[in-house]
């Protein structure tokens, strides 16, 4: 940015350099272009820019340094200019204070954070300029005790500024300056070693051949190098102590990340000087940082160190102290951090397998099943390195072994054993995908897999068990699918990506190879082994040469087997082959039709005999009907069987089951499913628009009749039948809701079906009776004792709840029915918390006000239930009441921080809460509080979400219900009213969000000058909105001052008996709080952030939670800025036990033959000389402890 020079500012030199600044001419005291502009444009070669500045410095170092100072000031986004007068007569702190006053207040952006093409490469150019500057000055200028003194003092002072832009820019400059100095120190060390060797070689010569002059020159050169190295050490000490030890714990995450990134570079570049525990401790501590980007920098810095095996010895103590933290970071909530943590552990494993215990490895193994593909791939590489790194290499001179005798045979067995031990048998595709990048050759050895399944075991080899063979078949299927489709399994990718030419060639080669193997191998597998569904999927991925044999085998298997997976595999195989684009379509279609004709005829014949009146069906008849119905249902899932009119026969079967009540469970379940498919296929045909009007009328009748049938089966005594009927009902109600006419399908409007109130009530009752149940109660009813069975039962209940919640979200049932769901939020948070929370979020997007009314209704229902259990004189400190109040607090947190968006909803919530609290008077008379007055204590949890003007309005509305005597009451029973009134009257500025520099890693710096216009704007908005602050009061009806008259008791939306609890249970246990929760101390008050060196990221060991932690509703909490710095010497000493941290001074290692060095020169750049007194008292606690 161009700026004026101060009057009378002249250079010390004359002649050639008097009219130039940094190589650019000046006219009339104005610079044509400044150093900042040159670097910002990035069009000039950086070395030429630096050479121009050096030339200017040689002619007049004051003017050149002034230009450099202004360069750093302007790179921070400050429009102020340091004049020569200021430079000569003012201290650094005064200059910085002056520049702070002249800082641009219009925006919080500055060059390092600005967007746009011109700023995109600014950071790179800025860092390059500093690096080149030190490199070009390393032989003379940096030792003149002037240039580096000035620059380091300036950067140290700026890095301590409360202005974020100054602090960020100067820290980056100081760290890059330090990196450049480390490189200089390394070169000096190499030169000293070379000089020492030359000196020793010359001195060891015979006296006659020894050149004394050369010895003196070498001695003089070594002395100069030694002095230069001492100077560099002092400079690095000044930067490290004055900048790094304060800024690595800065409040801004970007600044902390810069420090950690650069210290990693120092340790890698000059390991002899920096790779020790005194510097590694900073990386270890910062791995606990609360910002993911800082933790990520720690891991990448460590990866560069562990990659070099020569450095492993220096990392042993660090590894032993911080290994557990690295292992825990594999579960980091930031996926990028988790990936790098796994990669770091892979490097640790590569360097030394003894470091990681079996428990450490197991914590990484299970991540191969992660839904996040980068995490899974990194875990797959770790698994491959651990389990398969010791495989024997095949001798090239020996003939290559194939099949069961190949080297891959044992590795494939190991993969199978791992898959079985992980006990996640439905996730083979995820395991294969995780290992695909690192073990593709192993996973594509289909010849070996087929051999393991078909060939007899070798002498002394143990044969695979049936369970192991099944697992091997699953893995083989997944490898075939992965190779043929070339995309990850469901849930691990955003969609199919475009393959490169190389990937397409690999895909074609794999398909050709698998075709050659499986065309021969699959018939043998089908004949020699028990039928497995996976074999049929494999046919889909390559060309078939034996179609007739395949169709014959499919028919035989369908006729012999009743396993659902096998039948569905046959159905999907036929569907894949029945493609009209294939030349084999007619042959496959004929075979399919013949098979289905036989099945439907057999079913109708069996059903007629089965339903004959007066005869008791035996078990054989029931089994025949069930097996045939299962086959038809499996094929109806993938094929349109409308021409066989299966609705009539299935409906007759279901109706008979209702009338007689003795229909076998499985027959009813499959009949319901088959009828469901009939409805869906009919709807698909009608939606195409080619059907007749009669078809739509028929579909409407069938759909409504089937829904009524399912509703009748909701009252069945069999749980499995009720669950099937409930699931199908939810699907049909969602499909045939008003959503069916969206997208220009108004012709389907006659099919819209909205459930009646009785059906809605039955659906909700089913959820309350079958989903919100205790684990022990469910186990006793189902007889499940094993862990896998419990997980499966929970998964089924989650699906049932999700099906009902979708009805709420899509307005199929009334939103107020969600109150019975929302009130279970805390009690069943571990099981259904994510589903309920998402439902609340979606309903709020649909209608904020109705959602708020539903939330307050759920709290009112809980309050009424508590009154029924405990009576009106309950203790407000009871766990039941505290549980309801805690639920209200959680509900409050879900409204977020934007009060404008939720203004009307929160106001309506308070309105309903106040009316509920006063609507039932006390039977003892007006002198006693209303029965529900304690509800105001619960309602006060939402007061902080009210805007200031709305608090006044709500308070006025509250006073309409209060009598004069109520306002004077001070007894304990009136405390809820008193506290609620106080919450509305106090905290007038609660909604004013004060953003302080350092609270958010991406927030703008807030300065004092900026406060006035913001306050004015807020005042204006309040004046404009004050007139409409009572709009919400009249949203539904005109309100009058209510009279306290008796009103009916509020009940649940479903009339049902209260749930009976176990003998040792009562309501107090439903929403009870643990003693730790009840006695939890209040959060520490946030400290003023005028001082930016306060640590914000070193917590106690139990502070951090992984994203898979069991903490209650951590994600719901509002963001809180806490000072979680380790606050005791004991904590520091515990972390550093056994580590040698005697000194903080940078002491470069001596050369190989170097004699004892003299003591370092005094520190010319003591940070205390440029820091305020308030900052000087904030030395790092760990450093003080070590010095003591």
UniProtKB/TrEMBL annotation:
Q: Which GO terms describe its molecular function?
A: chromatin binding
User: By its UniProt entry, which SUPFAM superfamilies does this protein fall under?
Assistant: ARM repeat
Family to which this protein belongs:
Belongs to the SCC3 family.
**Membrane spanning stretches:** none
Q: Which domain of life is it from?
A: Eukaryota
Question: Where in the sequence does UniProt note compositional bias of the Basic residues kind?
Answer: 1007-1018
Q: What are the SCD domain coordinates in residue numbering?
A: 244-329
Keyword Coiled coil attributed: yes
Q: Where is the composition biased (Basic and acidic residues)?
A: 1-12
Question: What PANTHER family does the annotation carry?
Answer: COHESIN SUBUNIT SA-2, STROMAL ANTIGEN
Q: Give the gene symbol.
A: stag2b
- What do we know about how this protein assembles, alone or with others? Part of the cohesin complex which is composed of a heterodimer between a SMC1 protein (SMC1A or SMC1B) and SMC3, which are attached via their hinge domain, and RAD21 which link them at their heads, and one STAG protein.
Q: What does this protein do?
A: Component of cohesin complex, a complex required for the cohesion of sister chromatids after DNA replication. The cohesin complex apparently forms a large proteinaceous ring within which sister chromatids can be trapped. At anaphase, the complex is cleaved and dissociates from chromatin, allowing sister chromatids to segregate.
Keyword annotations for this protein, in alphabetical order, are: Cell cycle, Cell division, Chromosome, Chromosome partition, Coiled coil, Nucleus
Region listing for Disordered, in residue ranges: 1-25, 999-1029
Gene Ontology biological process terms from the UniProt entry: cell division; chromosome segregation; sister chromatid cohesion
Q: Which InterPro entries match?
A: ARM-type_fold, Cohesin_Scc3/SA, HEAT_SCC3-SA, SCD, STAG
Q: What is its main location?
A: nucleus
GO CC annotation terms, alphabetical? chromatin; chromosome, centromeric region; cohesin complex; nucleus
Cell division: present as a keyword of the record?
A: yes
Q: Where in the cell is it found?
A: Nucleus; Chromosome; Chromosome, Centromere
Q: What is this protein called?
A: Cohesin subunit SA
Give start-end ranges for the coiled-coil region(s). Answer: 185-238
Q: Which Pfam families match?
A: HEAT_SCC3-SA, SCD, STAG
